[in-house]
Write a structure and sequence with these properties.
disordered N terminus, 74% helix, globular, mainly alpha
Length: 191
């Protein structure tokens, strides 16, 4: 009996690391989109942006707290509705930017406009939620190669941390003055 215990493997299954990483990355995205929602309170149109980022934050938080939400039909319906809302706001915003810059020959860098940066935020939300719809750690079988699993984990971590890292770069004094995108972002100037 003692020899049986000595031969048993108590190592967690591969899916355990994948699931923990997935939950942590969704927690990071929940914090990021939550911060974005709170910061929209002083935007000229917070009624558009706060629900967009707020719902994205809640959807990511649901996965971070209990990954079983991800398989729920209600969670999937909310993700699809959020993506439709994101697409509608992005379309409206792109049309607005296009109209604003039409009169300017060889228009300025679009990132100088707050609306363009908002479209990038929408893109981050849409990409992450699309990934949440299609990537479910439990679906990967045990035959998944170690290299593929490592690549997936690195990709997930990178995608979840990238928006925070870029945002922090623009908020650090040295970079906020030297990168034109950050300069306009921090000052709130348009055009």
């Amino acid at each position: 009996m003692a020899s049986e215990i000595g031969h048993r493997s108590f190592a967690p299954p591969k899916a355990s690391l994948r699931l923990k990483t997935w939950r942590v990355c969704n927690a990071v995205m929940a914090v990021f989109t939550g911060i974005c929602a709170v910061l929209q309170h002083n935007d000229p149109d917070p009624e558009l942006w706060m629900p967009l980022y707020g719902l994205a934050s809640l959807l990511c938080l649901a996965i971070a707290t209990s990954p079983t939400f991800q398989g729920s039909i209600w969670w999937k319906v909310l993700v699809v509705l959020e993506m439709v809302y994101c697409l509608a706001i992005a379309t409206y915003t792109i049309m607005y930017i296009s109209e604003e810059t039409r009169a300017i020959p060889h228009g300025p860098n679009p990132l100088h406009y707050e609306e363009s940066r908002e479209v990038l935020g929408i893109l981050v939300v849409m990409l992450w939620l699309a990934g949440c719809l299609f990537y479910i750690p439990e679906r990967l079988d045990e035959s998944t190669s170690r290299q593929r699993e490592t690549l997936v984990i690195i990709l997930i971590c990178s995608l979840s941390l990238l928006p925070l890292i870029l945002w922090l770069i623009c908020m650090v004094g040295v970079f906020s003055d030297s990168i034109s995108y950050c300069r306009h972002m921090c000052s709130g100037n348009k055009g």
